[in-house]
Design brief:
16 strands, 5-stranded mixed beta sheet, 778 residues
Length: 778
């Protein structure tokens, strides 16, 4: 039998208080009436209709509890109907009794019909309560247990009531009263069996206990009717009906206090019910009691038979309880095994998930992506693959730490998931590289969706209070021309590197790219060995003063003489070095070579020559870069004032570690020049946030300085800005005398370009400085 939800504390309601008072009054009326003849019998009937109305009200309230199950509401609705019919029957019985005028009350057919309908409603409500599913063996045991109980109760009913039917008939005038009591007892019996053997079907268990006890008590009280035959002003219903109504009212209140939570139905193995054994014991006691007063021998036989029966029952109960204990142990072991199996299954599921998914982002990993690509290939399905590589991700790790880098990867993963279709697969291949598998699409269709992906991925991100600009290179390829799955991934990878090489966001694969990728891979491999093989050297381009043309400093420019390819253009191999990561090594080599050359020039020229050294964004963001620079200068004995660090706008636009490194270096005495100004992000705010000493105006603006176009306007505005900010301006790419003259007229004092000189070998730099010194001396 289940246990219901914990009920709210019991607080007597006005209805309960009224019902208790009326029940006590009815009991007192009947008790006093045993010794005193009431002159106004109708008073004894008054509590019945009032309590009937209270019972109907309480049952309807229990049936309307919010959230209660349908079966529970139907049950209490049936009890409300029963209470209503008993109320009507009580009024009809009162009318019959008053009409008898001092004679024993005669039960009319009307009263009998009303009570019969009410009892039918009660049985209907009881039998509609759901019971737990049973096996065939359980159903047989239930039938046997119920049979034992019914037979025993029937024996007691016959012994104490039914065999005295003549007395009932003479005291009540009909057989209906006896039949009604039997029916009420049957209702209580059904309720009792229901609670004990099948569960409460969702009704609060204690409420059903109250109903069973109250109806049984009412039926037992009504059995006193034959004793009232000599007192026509009293009737067994005067006490039986209030007792039954009180139990109904208390039971309905209990259901309402329990709330909408469903009583827990019997689950698992049924416990051993003692009710059938109690019935057998009761029958044995009745047998012995019936034999007392007769001959001794039958009494002894009866006692022995009952005792033997009790011993057999005790033995059976012992065995049953042992079986129940063993079954409980088996159930516990099975539950433990099921739990262990579930844990193992869960662990296997987790391991399988971990083997196929990225631990940080929970995206598919490379293995799962390859598996799905192979599945799509085997199915002959058209599909496209995007490969996405974040730009400058290492700088985030170096600047803010790996926790911030991991958070950036998580954000990018979330954005990718929101940008793709449900049937697409988003994977993290490792590091800052992602992939998207798009089944059912070719490269052209997938390219149309790239706009959404790019717009989501490249939105700024705020991490630890720092706003980061997110950018990426995206390569796209499909399985056209019956390409194998692995080849599609390779093609997308090639397209991605082409996109990064071209500084483009998105590039679609073309067969020509294979050769480009192979060539870049070859050059990247050769570049790693170029320093050891002495294939790199520096040239120095003069920066001159206007209008005299005197050299004030030189800019160090790296050149690579490949053993088979000859001179590799700087814009080509520098880009390869940036993508392959060798730019750090090249930058350190260049700074050391410049310091060595400054020392060499100092010995020959007897003065320090200032040199501009180009520094990449990757170098600036590398941890410990200021310390590395100062250590190299200290190694060669070069003062920081001899070195001007040339950077691009892109390197410092996002702020962060690059700007912090520049502030540190500038504080140590280095100068900072902002190269190619106007071609990058072109933000004037850089001039106030970035520690800059020199602005180098890009040659694209200088080329149109002699005309009246936009370039001339920009160059004019820049010299005014630099003058206002106390910065030096250097015009790059000067190729004609007219350009030099125009720049000087606008206020420019420094320039650089082929008009003044091409990049020179180190030995020629000394010659140029000596010539300039001679001109000044003359």
């Amino acid at each position: 039998m289940g246990t219901g939800a914990v009920a709210r504390p019991f607080r007597p309601t006005p209805q309960i208080v009224a019902a208790i008072v009326l029940t006590v009054a009815a009991s007192a009326w009947c008790a006093i009436g045993m010794w005193h003849e009431w002159s106004v019998p109708v008073v004894g009937w008054l509590p019945l209709p009032v309590m009937g109305l209270l019972a109907v009200f309480e049952c309807r309230a229990a049936a309307r509890v919010s959230g209660a199950e349908t079966a529970v509401r139907h049950f209490w609705g049936a009890i409300a109907v029963t209470s209503a019919f008993v109320f009507a029957g009580s009024v009809s019985m009162c009318y019959d009794a008053l009409r008898s005028a001092g004679a024993p009350a005669q039960t009319s057919p009307r009263t009998a019909l009303i009570f019969t309908v009410g009892l039918a409603a009660a049985h209907w409500g009881l039998f509609r309560l759901p019971s737990r599913t049973r096996t065939a063996g359980e159903r047989l045991r239930f039938a046997l247990d119920a049979g034992v109980i019914v037979v025993t109760v029937s024996l007691f009913a016959w012994h104490f009531s039914l065999r005295h039917v003549d007395s009932w008939r003479s005291s009540t005038g009909s057989d209906f009263a006896l039949l009604f009591i039997v029916a009420v007892a049957a209702v209580s019996l059904v309720a009792f069996i229901k609670v004990s053997l099948t569960g409460t079907g969702g009704v609060e268990p204690r409420a059903l206990h109250l109903l069973a006890s109250g109806t049984f008590g009412g039926a037992a009280t009504a059995a006193l009717s034959p004793a009232l035959a000599t007192r026509p002003y009293l009737n067994g219903a005067m006490l039986a009906v209030p007792i039954s109504y009180l139990s109904v009212i208390l039971a309905a209140d209990r259901q309402r206090r329990a709330g909408p939570e469903r009583a827990e139905r019997a689950t698992g193995r049924a416990r051993v019910s003692l009710l059938p054994y109690a019935a057998v014991v009761a029958a044995g006691v009745l047998l012995i009691q019936d034999r007392i007063g007769g001959p001794t021998e039958p009494v002894i036989v009866a006692v022995v038979v009952v005792f033997l029966t009790a011993l057999v029952m005790v033995r059976q109960l012992t065995v049953l309880r042992e079986n129940v204990r063993l079954l409980a142990a088996v159930d516990a072991n099975l539950a433990a095994l099921r739990s262990a199996w579930d844990d193992l299954d869960t662990a296997q599921t987790q391991l399988a998930h971990q083997a196929s998914h990225d631990a940080l982002t929970n995206l598919a990993n490379r293995a799962l992506l390859a598996e799905r690509v192979d599945q799509a290939t085997a199915a002959g399905e058209r599909f496209a693959v995007l490969l996405i590589d974040l730009n400058d991700f290492k700088a985030v790790n170096d600047w803010l730490g790996h926790a911030a880098g991991d958070r950036l990867l998580e954000i990018v993963a979330e954005r990718l998931l929101h940008a793709v279709r449900t049937e697409d697969t988003v994977a993290r291949l490792g590091g800052d590289e992602f992939a998207v598998l798009m089944p059912g699409l070719d490269a052209a269709s997938a390219g149309e969706r790239c706009g959404e992906i790019v717009s989501r991925v490249q939105r700024p991100v705020v991490i630890e209070g720092h706003q980061l600009e997110v950018s990426a290179g995206i390569g796209l390829a499909d399985n056209g021309n019956a390409a194998a799955g692995a080849d599609v991934l390779r093609r997308a990878d090639v397209a991605m590197y082409v996109a990064k090489a071209q500084n483009a966001v998105f590039v679609r694969y073309h067969p020509d790219m294979d050769q480009i990728a192979a060539e870049e891979a070859r050059l990247a491999a050769d570049l790693r060995q170029a320093i050891e093989r002495h294939q790199l050297h520096l040239l120095y381009q003069p920066v001159v003063e206007l209008p005299s043309g005197r050299t004030v400093r030189v800019e160090a420019l790296m050149r690579w003489r490949h053993p088979t390819d000859g001179m590799v253009p700087p814009d080509r191999f520098i880009a390869i070095a940036e993508r392959s990561g060798t730019i750090d090594t090249l930058g350190e080599w260049a700074l050391r070579e410049v310091c060595r050359q400054i020392v060499s020039w100092r010995a020959a020229y007897e003065a320090d020559i200032e040199v501009n050294v180009n520094v990449s964004a990757r170098q600036l963001r590398a941890p410990g870069f200021p310390e590395l620079v100062t250590a190299i200068l200290a190694e060669y004995g070069v003062a920081p004032a001899c070195i001007t660090l040339e950077i691009t706008e892109t390197a410092v636009f996002d702020g962060g570690p690059a700007v912090e490194s520049l502030r540190t270096l500038r504080g140590l005495g280095f100068k900072v020049a902002l190269d190619d100004f106007g071609t990058g992000h072109s933000s004037l705010s850089l001039l106030t946030t970035c520690p800059v000493d020199i602005i180098k105006v890009d040659k694209s603006f200088v080329a149109g300085i002699t005309g009246n176009g936009q370039q001339a306007v920009i160059v004019t505005a820049l010299i005014q800005i630099t003058a206002g900010l106390n910065l030096h301006a250097v015009a790059e790419g000067v190729e004609t005398a007219d350009q030099a003259a125009r720049l000087h007229a606008l206020g420019y004092r420094f320039a650089q370009g082929y008009y003044f000189d091409r990049p020179l070998p180190a030995d020629d730099v000394i010659s140029r400085f000596r010539v300039d010194r001679a001109k000044i001396a003359s």
